[in-house]
Amino acid sequence: MDEQRTEGGADRRILERIGEMVEAERDLRAALAEGRIDQSTEHRELKDIEEQLDQCWDLLRQRRARVRAGEDPDGASVRSTDEVERYES
């Protein structure tokens, strides 16, 4: 069975993506501090990354809740940014 399709494999891939985005946040902050980008660029790109992070965490929570409920975690889906952001507030 393909590891990416198993519950653990899919969850690991989501967590890897979260790690990549956290690293991208650090890189943006470093670029700003070093003067390679301006503040408006940093803010715009950070907002995009933060929205994607929220979607990933939401998907991971959905998957884990489905497992706890005895359901197929693959039934979870990425929700729109608007839906996730509204849920978080």
The number of distinct β-strands equals 0
What is the overall number of helices? 3
State the order of secondary-structure elements, H for helix, E for strand: HHH
Average pLDDT, all residues: 90
Give the overall form.
Answer: elongated
What's the alpha carbon Rg, rounded to whole Å? 16 Å
Report the biggest beta sheet as strand number plus sense, adding barrel if it closes.
none
Q: Which descriptors would you attach to this protein?
A:
single chain, 89 residues, 3 helices, elongated
Secondary structure elements and their pairing?
Blueprint: H1 7-33, H2 39-68, H3 81-88
Give structural notes.
It is a single chain. By secondary structure, the chain is mainly α. 73% of the residues lie in helices and 0% in strands. It has helices at 7-33, 39-68, 81-88. Helix 1 (7-33) runs antiparallel to helix 2. The radius of gyration is 16 Å and the shape is elongated. The N and C termini lie far apart (39 Å). Mean pLDDT is 90; it is low at 1-6.
